Amino acid sequence: MTRAGVVWAAVVAALVLLILLIIFILQNQDQVTVRYFGLEGLVPLGMALFIASVTGGVLVAMAGGARILQLRRNAHRSRSRQST
User: Strands, E, within 1-84: which ranges?
Assistant: First the structure.
């Protein structure tokens, strides 16, 4: 098991997921009305669900990133206190 092998497996898995996502979007082309903060528009159902899932992923990544920064700051403070 090498790094290149792990990267290759991750790329293959990502491509399979991308193909499944494209199939999902293409099979769900019914137009739906989307309303958000007073804005309204027609969007294909598959695209609306994709946008919602990406937005959720971004929010989770932001929360996780904030937590990682908080833990790093606390670890840095602990190391500073131990060295003095």
Answer: 31-36, 39-44
Contact 27, 46 (CB under 8 A): yes
Query: Nearest to residue 48, comparing CAs of 25, 65, 80, 70?
Result: 25
At residue 84, the 3 state secondary structure works out as coil
What are the residue ranges spanned by the domains of the chain?
A: 3-83
- The helix/strand/coil state of 2 is coil
For 53-80, what is the mean pLDDT?
A: 94
pTM for this entry = 0.67
Positive or negative, the Cα torsion across 36, 42, 47, 49? positive
The band of 84, judged by pLDDT with boundaries at 50, 70 and 90, is: low
Distance CA 84, CA 82 (A): 6
| 39-44/31-36 β-pairing | antiparallel
